[in-house]
Design goal:
Largest sheet: 2 strands, antiparallel
Shape: elongated
Order of helices and strands: HEHEEEH
Number of strands: 4
C-alpha cells in the first residue's frame, strides 16, 4: 500500500465519520419533534458503513491489492414504534391524550457523537503520520 493510498483511506474514513456526525446532530436536534412533513414524529437515522473488502491491510500485503477505505452505503431510519407520552393539552395528542415522540436516548446519541469524533481524530493522526513519512522521504532524496 502506497503512502498516498493510506491518505485516501484515512480521507474516506473522515468523510464517513462526518456524515455520521451530521446524522447524530440531526437526531439530537429533533429529539422532541412530534410532527414532520411526512407525518408523525421524527425517526432516528443511522449511517451504515461499507468497508471495501480490499481495505484490509492483510489483503493489500498478501495479494498486492489496494484498499479503498470506507464509505456510507446507506442511511436508515429507526423502525421502532414511537414513544407515547401522556400530554392531553398538546396539539399533537391523540384522542386518548397521548403524544408520539421519537424513540431515542440523548445519552446514547452523545456517546455515539464522542465515538465518531474520536474516530475522526484517529484518521487525522494517521494522515499526519503519513504526511511526516512523505516529508522524511523527500528529505532523504535531497
Amino acid at each position: 500500500m502506497s503512502l498516498f493510498t493510506s491518505l485516501q483511506v484515512s480521507a474516506s474514513g473522515m468523510a464517513a465519520q462526518r456524515t455520521r456526525v451530521e446524522l447524530l446532530v440531526e437526531n439530537m436536534a429533533n429529539a422532541e419533534t412530534t410532527r414532520t412533513p411526512q407525518g408523525g414524529p421524527y425517526k432516528r437515522k443511522d449511517a451504515i458503513f461499507l468497508i471495501d473488502p480490499q481495505a484490509s491491510p492483510f489483503s493489500a500485503v498478501f495479494q498486492n491489492e489496494v484498499g479503498q477505505g470506507v464509505r456510507v452505503a446507506d442511511v436508515i431510519e429507526d423502525d421502532r414504534p414511537p414513544e407515547l407520552r401522556y400530554i392531553p393539552g398538546h396539539p399533537d395528542a391523540d384522542a386518548n391524550g397521548y403524544v408520539a415522540f421519537p424513540r431515542m436516548n440523548p445519552a446514547e446519541e452523545m456517546v455515539d457523537l464522542l465515538n465518531a469524533s474520536r474516530s475522526y481524530q484517529g484518521n487525522i493522526a494517521a494522515m499526519t503520520a503519513v504526511k511526516d513519512m512523505i516529508n522524511r522521504s523527500i528529505d532523504i532524496m535531497r
